[in-house]
Specification:
The structure holds 2 protein chains of 2 kinds. In chain A, strands 1-2-3 form a 3-stranded antiparallel β-sheet. Chain A has 2 domains: 2-35 and 146-305, Rhomboid-like fold, CATH 1.20.1540.10; 44-133, no CATH class. Chain A has helices at residues 16-33, 48-63, 67-71, 85-95, 99-104, 114-133, 135-139, 150-153, 161-182, 184-205, 217-230, 259-273, 284-305; strands spanning 2-4, 235-241, 249-255. In chain A, helix 2 crosses helix 4 (85-95) and helix 10 packs antiparallel against helix 13 (284-305). Chain A has 13 helices and 3 strands. Chain B is mainly alpha-helical. Chain B is built from 18 helices and 2 strands. In chain B, helix 2 packs antiparallel against helix 4, helix 10 packs antiparallel against helix 11 and helix 10 (270-280) packs parallel to helix 12. The longest helix of chain B is centred in the first third of the chain and has 36 residues, at 27-62. The N and C termini of chain B lie far apart (87 Å). Classes of the chains: A mainly alpha, B mainly alpha.
């Protein structure tokens, strides 16, 4: 593991906004998960047979779609065979992410085992109701119609402890660098606008998804890209950890540009290598959206900060 | 031409001044450089192969045993090896070091034949052999820790050596350390060989028993317990129901057949499929399936369901479609229960003409003949009794069939 750490994180009081952002993220995480008793994950729709059934019904739904709408679906969907139960399971997983299907799936007419279909429709209505009641869904950003506040709340919400901790480590380390370099105002602006750009990137890549996006990673990507552009020619401290053996962890001074292959190219490669419609739980497009705005603002900052050379 | 012995420790290089001190790079520095190389080069390579990886993932998404996917994996490996070799060779040729080595103040020099720069051949050979080391689970790299000049196989083969530009350089391993690592490496190779041999024979065995044999693509959804692959539609489900009733196939198998029928072919065999679901579903759902089967109360399938549910009301069975094998099997059982063994045998013999049911009904056949024989022994022939004459012929044919003296 290697992460940029330009500032000394022990003198944290010098970075009030970074600290505030970190605490805010922790507070909202606790708020979301305090006393939460989610029965969503145990829903039979998300179990093997439920997924297969959903896939079968979604297959029939696809058959009724006009060609231009069907063409919008991922390429692999066109290769799915209705008699293959494994493929129907995969299709079911995709169906649960398709907002247009999920919004009115129980109103369509299907052929097949009518007893199962009738039970499935009841379960779907229940599932959707519980899903939408979740605080994480309400705070998250998705294609479903929600208030404009979701664009901000998603930036401070996280889905689990690992998600929160990994984001906060980066936020603390790179946030301090940005705050020391450009000040608290720029850091706040970058965090918010980076998050907004990340949201746009996410919605652009997943225009009809039901799964909400949460997390500060788009904002952090913006901070990384900003720092990379603003301090392009500097060597900064990176912390590395290979193993706890002596010499295999510590600090190393490397060019700031190393952030590009380490984080930004990885996001791009991951985005391109993920089968469409079935992401692995990471919104790479949001990272890239945040990175783009961060890089642009970084260039502007660099241009403004460069002192004009006047002939004596 | 004499080839240099690559396995010999190059403690005394020929062209290098033996009195000169070689600033060997330390193992820790080289390890960190390796990690940095991985972190810098792997995203670039990932970017190049992203589309191929996506395609490969899609193949396995749709079929976990996809042959296309396996080929795509080999292509991905080939491209990764090619790109890693090219990138490393590029850096070595122009900067005499990989990016990680550059950051850690290391350089790769030609050794023992002194040259101002590495040749292109050296760069490519070193990079390619470095990549090949991963095939042996990176065990050859352990030599960096044991060789007196910290030279692994890929370095000796390409006549190169990694040096440091730092003031503090490595003195090489202590003799004891060197011997320990070398023995460890040999042991690792032996274990690798052992696992390789076991893996080979295990794979060969799987190949011989047909684990990798191509599955029938025509009916991947159907239950494998039903051997007859030519059956389809109503007759397949009818056969499955009959086999289930004589305990030749499991409830899971019948359920699979019913699912395949309901979701794949809803027009022809929907009634029978719901009947199958009625038989295999849990008690909470059974009532719903019964109602579904009997939506049309006059239907043949509903009559069968009523017969099965009420545990044998003959008038229900009489209403069922006699063309169905399941109906005939139930009738045969009904006749057996009412001690009409000849009638039961006639129906069983008729059903045994269907190849998928032939062996499955053998026990029913023997049971009926046995019961008939018992009856005939208790009630010997008195005068003209047609049934007994029939019974005799059945027993004779049984004796003939099973070569009973």
């Amino acid at each position: 593991m290697i992460i940029p750490c330009p500032e000394d994180f022990r003198s944290y009081l010098r970075y009030p906004l970074t600290l505030t952002l970190v605490l805010l993220n922790v507070f909202i995480f606790i708020l979301i998960f305090s006393g939460m008793n989610s029965s969503i994950s145990s829903s039979s729709l998300l179990q093997g047979e439920g997924m297969t059934l959903t896939g079968r019904l979604y297959y029939q739904y696809l058959q009724g779609l006009p060609p231009e709408e069907l063409f919008e679906k991922p390429e692999w969907i066109h290769q799915v065979k209705s008699y293959n139960t494994e493929q129907m399971g995969v299709l079911g997983a995709y169906a649960l992410r398709d907002a247009r299907f999920m919004a009115q799936a129980e109103t369509f007419t299907y052929r097949g085992d009518e007893i199962q279909i009738s039970q499935w429709k009841d379960q779907l209505v229940q599932f959707r109701k519980k899903y939408q009641q979740q605080l994480l869904y309400r705070f998250g950003l998705s294609s479903a119609e929600k208030g404009p506040l979701a664009w901000i709340t998603y930036q401070f919400s996280h889905s689990n402890w690992i998600h929160l901790l990994s984001n906060l480590v980066f936020l603390a380390l790179i946030g301090m660098g940005v705050e020391a370099l450009a000040g608290s105002g720029v850091l706040l602006g970058l965090y918010i606008f980076g998050g907004l750009a990340g949201g746009l990137g996410f919605l652009f890549s997943d225009a009809h998804g039901t799964v909400p996006m949460v997390g500060a990673s788009a904002s952090i990507s913006a901070l990384l890209a900003f720092y990379c552009m603003a301090e392009m020619r500097r060597r900064v401290r990176f912390l590395y950890f290979v193993s706890p053996m002596p010499g295999q962890y510590g600090a190393i001074y490397l060019p700031t540009l190393l952030i590009v292959p380490l984080f930004l190219v990885v996001d791009l490669a991951s985005l391109w290598s993920t089968p469409e419609g079935l992401g692995g739980g990471v919104a790479y497009a949001a990272h890239l959206g945040g990175s783009l705005i961060g890089a642009l603002l970084g260039m502007v900052y660099r241009w403004k900060a460069t002192p004009a050379v006047t002939p004596s | 031409m004499v080839f240099p012995d690559l396995s010999a420790p190059a403690g005394k290089p020929q062209n290098i001044d033996s009195t000169a001190i070689i600033p060997i790079a330390s193992v820790a520095d080289r390890f960190v450089a390796l990690v940095l190389d991985f972190l810098i080069l792997s995203p670039m390579i990932s970017l190049f192969i992203a589309s191929l990886v996506r395609k490969t993932k899609t193949y396995f998404l749709l079929n976990t045993m996809s042959q296309e996917g396996i080929i795509a994996i080999f292509l991905v490996i080939a491209v990764v090896v090619f790109l890693a070799t090219m990138l490393q060779a590029f850096f070595l040729y122009f900067w005499q070091a990989t990016p990680g080595q550059l950051f850690l103040q290391m350089r790769v020099i030609s050794y023992p034949h002194k040259q101002a720069r590495l040749t292109l051949n050296q760069c490519f050979l070193r990079s390619f052999l470095w990549c090949s080391g991963f095939v042996l689970l990176a065990i050859p790299y352990l030599e960096v820790a044991s060789h007196p000049l910290r030279r692994a196989f890929h370095e000796r083969a390409s006549d190169t050596l990694v040096i440091t530009l730092k003031r503090n350089y490595d003195d090489g391993p202590l003799p004891l350390e060197s011997r320990f690592i070398s023995s460890w490496m040999r042991m690792s190779f032996l274990f690798l060989l052992l696992f390789g041999v076991i893996g080979f024979f295990k794979t060969y065995h799987s190949l011989a028993v047909g684990v990798y044999r191509e599955k029938d693509p025509q009916a991947p959804f159907a239950c494998k317990e039903i051997q007859e692959s030519e059956l389809s539609g109503v007759s397949r489900l009818d056969a499955a129901l009959s086999l289930f009733l004589v305990n030749e196939i499991s409830a899971e198998c019948l359920d699979k057949e019913a699912e395949a029928s309901l979701w794949g072919d809803p027009v022809n065999s929907q009634g029978l499929a719901y009947l199958a679901k009625f038989l295999t579903s849990e008690s909470s759902e059974q009532e719903k399936y019964f109602e579904k089967v009997c939506e049309d109360g006059t239907s043949s399938v509903c009559a069968m369901a009523r017969y099965m549910r009420e545990e044998g009301a003959l008038e229900d069975l009489e209403l069922a479609d006699k063309q169905l094998w399941t109906t005939r099997l139930l009738l045969a059982d009904e006749k057996y229960n009412s001690q009409d063994y000849v009638g039961s045998l006639k129906l069983i013999e008729d059903l045994q003409k269907i190849s998928v049911l032939k062996s499955a009904l053998e026990r029913r056949y023997v049971r009926s003949v046995w019961a008939l024989n018992e009856t005939m022994q208790i009630q010997p022939k008195k005068g003209r009794v047609p049934a007994s004459v029939d019974g005799d012929s059945w027993i004779d044919s049984f004796k003939e069939k099973y070569e009973v003296p």
